[in-house]
Structure formats: structure tokens, C-alpha cells
Write a structure and sequence with these properties.
Helix content: under 10%
CATH topology: Jelly Rolls
Number of strands: 16
Radius of gyration: 17 Å
Shape: globular
Number of domains: 1
Strand content: 35-45%
Distance between the termini: 9 Å
Order of helices and strands: EEEEEEEEEEEEEEEHE
CATH architecture: Sandwich
Structural class: mainly beta
CATH class: Mainly Beta
CATH superfamily: Galactose-binding domain-like
Number of helices: 1
Length: 233
């Protein structure tokens, strides 16, 4: 099981213990053969840890789905033909768990989409967007190394501490979406039809207990925060 250490946080605690571990995780290693084809959607990608289903939905029927090298791993979840509103989705259960967090690796090609938002749902129909949104880094753009089977970087790792959102606790079904929010490419231009975005190691896990000093400062205050993580192999 992969472990994570907090490096820095926005809108959350400045220091915290390591997160407790994965409830559900998609590494796309054992399911890579099923991530292929050209269509407007792909689904039924099973989690390698725990129980859950990943999927992707695009407006364009010509979207190419593939599983190229991940962040220091053999496979990831990748797609082309991005438009505003297209998304990756991850569905799981948090029964028996509270204090939820999500963490994942994500990158794009120079003409892939840059700006995304995380949202969640308990029924798969009504989604709530978590603020702030986030931007992904271009794969291999210095000073960050290219991610691949033998290379990778924690600079591509993103996460949100959602422990303040108690409706995610002990839920029979929770959906998380990573949605393209505009037409800006990773390089600052316009998203191209062949531009790609890759996801790897999407993990739903339990979050740390806030330090008393953080609560006193009112930093949590019902907010979910964007967190930068470091993956320790």
C-alpha cells in the first residue's frame, strides 16, 4: 500500500501527521488492458485497493482512451479530445470510515487541459464543487522530470483534505469527479484535440486529526483545502 506525507497545505493545517492509508485506490496497473478504444466514455475500471469503479466521460465521440506510463509506474488513465465539462469519475464506499481525503497524480501534454475542479456527490446526480480549483503541470517541463515507468515526481501529486465535509463519512456510495473547467492548455494556449491528460494513483483515504492550533485559527471552518502531497514508495 502506498503511503503519503503532507508537505504543505492551503486553507488547511500547516503541519499534520501522515495520513492513515487508503480506503480505495486506482493504480491502473491490473486494469490497464481495459483502458483502450475510441468513444465518448469509458467505465467499469475496478480499483486495485478496496472496492470502487472509475470512469471517464467526454462530449466528443472520438476521444481516445489509453493507459500510458504513470508517475513512476507502468500505467495510468489517459484521454484526448478534452472539452469544458469533460471529466474523470471515481465511485466508492466510505462505510466504516470518517475524515475523508483524496489524493492523486495528474499531468498533461502541452495542449492538454490545465484547469480542473474537484466535485463530489452522494447519489451520482447532484454534485458539489470543492473550492479552490487546481491546475496541472506539463509532463516533463523543467524542472520537473517526465513521469514514466522509471521516472516521476511528487510535483504532479495533488490532494484535498475533505474531513470537514461530514456527509462523506460512512457513506454507502460516494462519487468524486475531476472536471475540465476551461479551454486553457497546460502550456497556456488553447486545448488541442490531441492534447492529453493523465491520472494515476487516485486514492480515497482517511485524513489526519487537525492540530488544536489550526482549529483555533479557524482555518478549517467548514472548508475543504487543496493539499500538496509527497508519495513515499
Amino acid at each position: 500500500m502506498k503511503k503519503f506525507l503532507v508537505l504543505a497545505a492551503l486553507l488547511t493545517i500547516s503541519t499534520a501527521p501522515a495520513f492513515a492509508g487508503a480506503i480505495t485506490e486506482w493504480t491502473f496497473e491490473t486494469t490497464s488492458a481495459g483502458i483502450a478504444g475510441t468513444s465518448n466514455h469509458i467505465d467499469n475500471i475496478a480499483a486495485e485497493v478496496g472496492t470502487g469503479i472509475a470512469s471517464g466521460v467526454h462530449a466528443g465521440a472520438g476521444t481516445v482512451w489509453s493507459s500510458p506510463a504513470g508517475n513512476f509506474s507502468s500505467h495510468s488513465f489517459s484521454s484526448t479530445l478534452w472539452a469544458v465539462g469533460d471529466y474523470y469519475q471515481f465511485q466508492t464506499s466510505t462505510i466504516g470510515f470518517s475524515g475523508i481525503a483524496v489524493v492523486w497524480d495528474q499531468t498533461g501534454s502541452s495542449t492538454g487541459p490545465r484547469d480542473f475542479a474537484l466535485s463530489y456527490s452522494l447519489d451520482g446526480n447532484t454534485y458539489t464543487t470543492v473550492s479552490p480549483g487546481y491546475s496541472v503541470l506539463q509532463n516533463g517541463l523543467a524542472p520537473n522530470p517526465s513521469w514514466g515507468a522509471a521516472t516521476g515526481s511528487s510535483a504532479y501529486t495533488l490532494g484535498y483534505d475533505l474531513s470537514a465535509i461530514t456527509t462523506l463519512d460512512n457513506a454507502s456510495s460516494v462519487f468524486f469527479r475531476l472536471t475540465d473547467t476551461d479551454t486553457t492548455s497546460v502550456s497556456g494556449g488553447t486545448v488541442g484535440t490531441g492534447g492529453t491528460d493523465r491520472i494515476d494513483n487516485f486514492t480515497v483515504q482517511t485524513a489526519p486529526v487537525p492540530e488544536p492550533s489550526a482549529a483555533a485559527l479557524g482555518i478549517l471552518g467548514g472548508l475543504a483545502g487543496l493539499v500538496v502531497w509527497k508519495r513515499r514508495k
